[in-house]
Amino acid sequence: MTRFINYSSYVFVFFLYVFLFAPIVVLVMFSFNNASSLAVWSGFSTRWYHELTNDISILEALTNSIEIAFSATILSAALGLCVGLSPKHVFKKLPLLPIVLPDIVQGLSLLCFFIWLSVPLGKISVILAHASFGSAYVATLVRSRVKVIDPNLKEAASDLGAKPWAIFFKITLPQLMPAVISGMLIVFTMSFDDFSVAFFTAGIGAGTLPLKIYSMLKFGVTPVVNALSSLIVMTSVILMTLAFFNRPAKT
Amino acid sequence: MKLKSFVNILIVFIVVGLWCLLKITIYHKRAAEGASRKVRTLYLYSLNNYFPDEIVKAFEKENNCHVQYDTFSSNEELLAKMQGGASGYDVLIPSDFIVKALIASDLISPLDKSLLPNAKNIAPEFLNVPYDPESKFTVPYKWGTTGFIYNTQRISENLESWNDVFKPKFAGKISIFDDEREALGLHLQNLGYSANSTDMRELRQAQKLMMERKPMIRVFSTDPRQLLLTNDVWISQLFSGDAMQINRENKNFKYVIPKEGGIFWIDAMAIPKDAKNKDLSYAFINFILRPEIELINVRTLFYSSPNKGLESSDLNPFLKASFIKKLDFKHLEFIKDIGIDGQKWDLIWTEIKSQ
Amino acid sequence: MLPTFSKNKTSLPTLMAWFWALSLVLAPMAYIIIISFMTRGPYGGVVMTPTLSNYTKLFDQGLTPLIAWAFLRSVLMAAATTVLCLLCGFPLALFLVFKSGKYRNLLFFLLVIPFWTQFLIRVYAWMSLLSDNGIFTQVFGTTWLFTYKAIFIGMLYNYLPYMTMSLYVNIEKLDVMLLDAAADLGASQFVKFVKIVLPLTMPGILAGSIMVFIPALGEFVIPDVLGGGKKFFIGNLLAQQFLTARNWPFGAALSVVLIIVVGLSFYLLSRLGKGRELEELI
Hints:
- The complex is a heterotrimer of chains A (251), B (355) and C (282).
- Chain A has helices spanning 2-30, 47-54, 56-85, 90-93, 96-100, 103-116, 123-146, 151-159, 164-193, 196-201, 209-218, 224-246.
- Chain A is mostly helical and 251 residues long.
- In chain A, α3 (56-85) runs parallel beside α7 (123-146), α3 (56-85) packs antiparallel against α9 and α8 (151-159) runs antiparallel to α9.
- Helices cover 72% and strands 1% of the residues of chain C.
- A two-stranded antiparallel sheet of chain C has the order 1-2.
- Chain C starts with 11 loop residues before the first helix and ends with a helix.
- Chains A and C meet through α1, α3, α4, α5 and α6 of A and α1, α3, α4, α5 and α9 of C.
C-alpha cells in the first residue's frame, strides 16, 4: 500500500510537471514553424525570429515593460521599506489589501482616481499603479524580517551615539536587505507580468508587452509572439539558473 | 553569507536588464537612422497591425522623427481612453461611428486642409460622409465591408444569407464578432431592420434571435483569421480586408455580403485637440495619402483604399477606391453613432453575454 | 521592539508611508465608492450629481438576474479553481518537501519557470494546445477550446504555482519528528494525514486559498480568451461597463459589490484560520 502511494506520487508529480511545461514546449516549438499557423506544423524555419528583430512595435513594448518594471521595483522598494518599518498599527494590516484585491478592481479604481486628479495616463500612471501593490509585497516581507532581527544591535549603536540615519543605513538596512531584495524580485516579476492593472491605467507611450500581446490576440496574432516568448523563457531560465547556483545549499 | 548571494542575484538582474534596455535603445536609434540629437516623437493610436513597418520606417526617415505606435483592441476602448484623458496622441485611427462621438465630445480638432495637399487624391465618394458631413475633422484611411466568409472545402453548398449560416449542421463552427454594434447589428439586419435601430422592440427581437443562435456560436472574436485557417471555425463574420488576407493564404474561402445586408465602414485619420506635434500629425497624414505610399500599404494590409491615385496600378480591383461604385448600397449600412440610445444596446449586449 | 525610524511623526519615511497608504491604496478605493453614487454623462464620463440610481439599478428586475449570474459564475469558477489547485498543489508541495531529496531545489526552481513567461503568453500557448488541431483534441477527442473546460485548465495553470508556494512554505516548517512519532505509534497513513498533517498545514491551505480564490474572482482575461467571450464573468462585466458601455458610475457600483464579496470571503477564510496571522504566510 505504502509502496503504491510512493509510486503513484512520482507519477502524479511527473504529470503535473508535464502539465506545467507542455505549453512552454509547444510555444518554443511553434516559434520555429515555417507557416504562420500556431497549431499546424509545416517545417522548420527561423523566419519569426527575423521578423521579431524587425518588429519595432514589439521591441518598443518590451522596452516599456522593462522600464516600467524597473521604476516600479525601485519605487516599491523605497515605499515598501517605509511602510514595513512604520510602527503604526494601520501599516501592519493595510499591505494585505492590495495583495489580495482582484487586479481589475485595483486597475479600475486607480484609473478613475488618476483621471480625477488629472494625472496623465502614461508610463508614470502605470508605474504608480504597480508601486501600489508592489510596495505592499515589499512591506510584508520587510515586516516579517524585522521580527527576526536582533533589536539590541540598534540600541547598542544608539547608546554609542550613532545618529538615527547612520543607524538605519549601517545597521538596519543591511539586515533587511534579503527581504527587500526578494521583495524587489517579486515586484519586478509581477510588474513585468501584469496585464489587468496596466490595461486600465496605461496611456500614451506606455503600451507594455502584455498589452501589445493582448491587442495582437485580438487583432492579428503571428508566431512572432512565440519567438519573443521563447526568448523571454530562455532569458529567465538563464537568470534563474544563475541565481539558483549562486545560492548556498540549504542545510 | 546569504546576503552576498542575494546581492549577486541583484547584480545579475540589473546587468541583464540594463543590457536589454541598451540593446533595444541602440536598435531604435539605428531604426530612426541618421537621427540627429533631438528626435521628436509622433504618437499614433490605432488598431494593432494597421500600419506596415515599412511605411512607418519610411516616414521616420523622411521626417527625422520617431513614431510611437500604440494599439487599442476595440473602438470603444479608444473612445473610453480618450474621454478618460489619455492625452498626447498625435494621430488617431477611429472608425466612422466613433468619429461622430469624438466630435461630439470635442476631442478632435478640425483639419487645416492647406496642410494636406495630398487630400486631393481622395476619391469624392469618401468625402462629405455621414459621420463627418463636411469632411472637416477627418480624412478616410481605409474602407471595407462586413459580411461573412466560409470554407468552401468544408461546406459544399452556397451560403448567401445569415439564415443559411445558422443551421444545426454548422453548430460549433461559427464565429461572430465580439462587438455589440456588429454582432447585434447583423441580427437586426437579418430581421429586416436597420443595424442602427434604437427601437427597443426591434432590439429585443434581435436579441431573441441571437440567443436562439448562441449555442451554435463557437466563439465571439473580432479577429478569427487564425481560427479559420486552422479549421477551428468554418464560417465567420469578417471584414472584407481580413477576407482578402485569408484568401491570400488559402483560396478555399469565399467572402459574402449577406442577402439581407452588411455593414459599410470607413476608418478615418483624425488629430486630437491636445496633440502636441500637430505639424508632424499633418505630415504623417499627408504622407499616408501619397499614392506610392498607399500602394505599399494596401499591398501589405489588403484593405481597400479611398485613394484614387491607385486606379492605374495593377492592384486587385477590389482594393481600389473605384470599387465602391460596384457595391450595392441598398444592402449596405453605415454604423451610426446613436448617442444616449447606446445604453439600450449596452443593456441588451450585457444580457446576451451574461445568459 | 521594532527597529523603526525615529519617533518623530513627521519624518520623511512616515510621510512616504502615508503617501502610499493614502494616494495609492485608500483614496482610489474611496473615490470609486464616491463615483458609484454619481451620474453618467451623455457620452460617458462622470457627472458629479449625487444619485442612488446605480444601486437601485442593481435590483432592477431585468438586470439583477444577469448580475447575479455573472457573480455566481465567478464565485463558482474561483471556488472550483481553488479546490483543483489544492488537490494538485497539496500533494505536490508534500512531495517537494518530503520526497524530492536532493532534487528539491531543482524541482522548486522548475515550478517557478512558467511564472516567468508572460501571463498572456501562457494563455495564448493554451489556445494553441487546446485548438481543434492541438494535442488535446487529437488525444482525447471532443472540443476543448472556447468551452468551460478550457477556462478551467487556464485557471488551474495560472493559479497552481501560487497555491503550491503557499503550501510549500508552510509544510517546510512541519515538524518531521511529530510525523515520525505518529508512525512509531502505529498510526496509518490516513490517520496521520487527517490527525496531524492536515491541522498543521491548515494555515498554509487557507493562505493559499486566499491567494487563489480572491484574485480568481476578478479574472476576466482567461474567460475572454480561452472561453471565447461567450459568457460574462464579473470581471468581464466590469471591463465592459468601463471600456465599452462607458458607464463608469454603474461600473463603480458593481466594483463596490465585488469589493464587498471579496471582503466577505476574506473574512470567512480568515475566520477558519482562528485568528492565526495570515499575513505572515503570504
